[in-house]
């Protein structure tokens, strides 16, 4: 995810969208009874943020129909409803917990996930897995910046580090003995992946060796590891970030592996991971991904329960933390233009060694590397870089004991939360649940009904016979995030326009979006309380 582009404001009206930013960049709706059609008008007087777009690339796209003009370039984009659905549903992933014994003892009923790219390639990643040597399931969302390398590495490795941190000494000894004797080791995780999820196949062996070094360290402790779940998650986050830093400093003869290590360390990623085991829900967060619970109250209304805080310049706790960790002389330069040292939006993240290492170490590593420009490594030392590290991957961990009224957990990258509030997300998920049951939810935070809203509801009901409901709730959320009008209903023209923005422009109006929704089994949760 690119975090260097200025904030842009998206406002919609009934028959047009106006995209406002630096300079003049806007779109005009072209009425057409048969097809969804928008015209984008790009003024050549626009002062674009550095590196944000290339007009030469935009004009060459096959999607665009060019009309020559001395002052403006005009583009028309068309998408049918089925094409819109194909784009939105391409990254769908869902998994239902099997009920093999007739009794579902897992408090997770099912989960649904999806992604929509803004960057090319997408910089977000996601993970979901069942713990095989301990109990519970884990779900993670990872938001990359300055490239996808760090998010990719963290999505592959972090759940393993957490799982190992939770294992007993006996289990760790069994795994170590099997590896030492070159015998098959006990599997640690059962992954639940999308067919298109990628892996760093070339560096898997090195990742495993460093994971092994970690569990050997745990075995070297004088006592049983015995971490609490909170301690295990904190230790795993910090250890992985340390390994990312050390791997790029270690001598490496294989150029490909060396380059991957460089890209991982010099890019960055925020992370939000949930661990669910029976009634026990732990959420570890570093950065500005977010997790919330949807709660169905006894009176039939829905409420939200935030489980994370966004770690950025808008959080007073983060500001105070950083001020405690650095001299008073740096108070005014820690956050510049609402960014850490004027560079980074999140104040906690994996990787980003250029905000953790000394200037000397950075220079030493990059000086001995190959062409860093070819690897798209961002080299910049801010003017007020005096007392590193300024960035940490240490997470905040929240514990919540599940209740039967806790119906679902939503974990998403900030691309969703920039478009929808916590309350809107819960309202949409609750509405989707009841829509599937042919019911309408009663929401505590629903706005008073007005004529415009009633008109929108009537149109929605009229169109139900034509447009099928998204079966995947994550798709439903993404559709509303980028296509909702002022009444909270999806505007097909706006949705098409947002999906057909050229790659170089899309990031100005929407970020990569990754969403995972975990549904809880209320009956199982009630049984836990009954049995106890």
Primary descriptors:
532 residues, alpha+beta, Phosphatase 2c, domain 1, seven-stranded antiparallel beta sheet, six-stranded antiparallel beta sheet, 16 helices, 22% strand, globular, disordered N terminus, PPM-type_phosphatase-like_dom
Structure explained in plain terms:
With 532 residues, the protein is of the alpha+beta class. It has a single domain (81-531), classed as Phosphatase 2c, domain 1. Helices cover 34% and strands 22% of the residues. Strands 8, 9, 10, 11, 12, 17 and 18 form a 7-stranded antiparallel beta sheet that branches. Strands 6-7-20-19-13-14 form a 6-stranded antiparallel beta sheet. Strand 3 (25-29) and strand 4 (37-43) form a beta hairpin. Helix 6 crosses helix 7 (255-266). 40% of the residues are buried.
Radius of gyration: 24 Å
- Number of structurally distinct domains: 1
- Continuous helix count: 16
Q: What structural category do the secondary elements indicate?
A: alpha+beta
Largest sheet: 7 strands, antiparallel
Return the CATH topology: Phosphatase 2c, domain 1
Query: How many runs of DSSP E, i.e. beta strands?
Result: 20
Q: Provide the CATH superfamily.
A: PPM-type phosphatase domain
Overall mean pLDDT stands at 82
What is the CATH-assigned architecture?
A: 4-Layer Sandwich
CATH class categorisation: Alpha Beta
Helix content: 25-40%
Between the first and last Cα atoms, what is the distance in angstroms?
Answer: 46 Å
Unreliable stretches (pLDDT < 50, length at least 5) are 1-74
Assign an overall shape.
Answer: globular
Strand content: 15-25%
């Amino acid at each position: 995810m690119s975090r260097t582009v200025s904030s842009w404001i998206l406002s919609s009206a009934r028959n047009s969208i106006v995209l406002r930013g630096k300079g003049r960049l806007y779109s005009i709706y072209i009425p057409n009874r048969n097809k969804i059609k928008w015209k984008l008008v790009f003024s050549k007087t626009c002062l674009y943020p550095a590196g944000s777009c290339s007009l030469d690339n935009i004009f060459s796209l096959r999607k665009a129909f060019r009309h020559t003009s001395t002052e403006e370039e005009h583009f028309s984009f068309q998408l049918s409803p089925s094409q819109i659905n194909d784009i939105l549903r391409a990254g769908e992933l869902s998994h239902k917990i099997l009920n093999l014994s007739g009794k579902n003892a897992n408090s997770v009923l099912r989960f649904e996930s999806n992604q929509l790219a803004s960057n090319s390639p997408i910089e977000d990643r996601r993970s979901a897995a069942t713990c095989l040597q301990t109990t519970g399931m884990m779900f993670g969302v990872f938001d990359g910046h300055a490239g996808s390398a760090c998010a990719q590495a963290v999505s592959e490795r972090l759940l393993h580090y957490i799982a190992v941190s939770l294992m007993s000494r006996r289990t760790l000894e069994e795994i170590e003995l099997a590896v030492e004797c070159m015998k098959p080791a006990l599997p640690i995780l059962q992954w639940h992946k999308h067919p298109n999820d990628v892996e760093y196949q070339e560096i898997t062996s090195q990742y495993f060796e460093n994971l092994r070094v970690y569990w050997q360290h745990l075995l070297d402790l004088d006592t049983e590891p015995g971490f609490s779940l909170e301690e295990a998650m904190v230790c795993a986050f910090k250890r992985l970030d340390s390994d990312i830093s050390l791997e790029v400093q270690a001598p490496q003869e294989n150029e490909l592996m060396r380059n991957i290590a460089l890209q991982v360390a010099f890019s960055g990623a925020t992370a939000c991971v949930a661990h669910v085991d029976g009634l026990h829900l732990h959420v570890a967060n570093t950065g500005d991904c977010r997790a919330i619970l949807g709660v169905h109250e006894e009176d039939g209304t829905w409420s939200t329960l935030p489980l994370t805080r966004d770690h950025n310049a808008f959080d007073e706790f983060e500001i105070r933390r950083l001020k405690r960790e650095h001299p008073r002389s740096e108070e005014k330069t820690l956050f510049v233009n609402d960014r850490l040292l004027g560079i980074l939006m999140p104040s906690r993240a994996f990787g980003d060694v250029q905000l953790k290492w000394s200037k000397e170490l950075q220079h030493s590593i990059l000086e001995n590397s190959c062409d860093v420009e070819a690897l798209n490594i961002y080299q910049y030392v801010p003017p007020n870089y005096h007392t590193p590290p300024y960035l940490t991957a240490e997470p905040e961990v929240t514990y919540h004991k599940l209740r039967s009224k806790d119906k679902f957990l939503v974990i998403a990258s900030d691309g969703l939360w920039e478009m929808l509030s916590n309350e809107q997300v819960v309202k949409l998920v609750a509405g989707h649940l009841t829509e599937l049951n042919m019911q309408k939810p009663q929401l505590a935070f629903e706005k008073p009904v007005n004529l415009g809203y009633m008109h929108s509801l009537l149109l929605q009901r009229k169109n139900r016979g034509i447009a099928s409901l998204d079966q995947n709730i994550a798709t439903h959320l993404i559709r509303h995030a980028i296509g909702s009008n002022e009444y909270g209903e999806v505007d097909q023209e706006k949705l098409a326009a947002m999906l057909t923005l050229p790659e170089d422009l899309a990031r100005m109006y929407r970020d990569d979006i990754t969403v995972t929704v975990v549904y809880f089994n209320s009956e199982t949760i009630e049984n836990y309380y009954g049995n106890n």
